[in-house]
Amino acid sequence: MLRNINNAKIKVSKIVIIRIMFPSQPTENELLKTILEPLLEDFTHWFSRSRLLLESERLSFLSLEEQNDLLARVKNAQQEVATAHLLFKTTGGQVGIEAKMLLPWHQLVAECWGVSSRRRRLQGWGEYQSPQTDA
Fold this sequence. Notes:
Distance between the termini: 92 Å
Structural class: mainly alpha
Helix content: 55-70%
Low-confidence stretches: 1-6, 131-135
Largest sheet: 2 strands, antiparallel
Radius of gyration: 26 Å
Strand content: 5-15%
Order of helices and strands: EEHHH
Number of domains: 1
Oligomer: single chain
């Protein structure tokens, strides 16, 4: 049989339907456990590292007010992440987190990475002195 489709002649001899077998789709619960749990663990890790840095060193490139503000925001985010993680685990992964909650955490982690990166860069150039070596 010949068919004219947009002025192109195509010979159709037989239509073959191929069924592609996909592995079974994960449940919402499985997706949450696969994606959300490691994400919450990452937030916990990075906020802990940031808090340790901000509490243990006086960063000369931040004003005291800026450093204290960043530390307060990290502590608050740590509490939020810990609460979300606790709810997630307590409910067996039945509780998710709205994206609007994740975005500020991502932004704060990025800000902390920037501070840490700047600290390392200044140390490498010999411009940064930790409080222990200032005397």
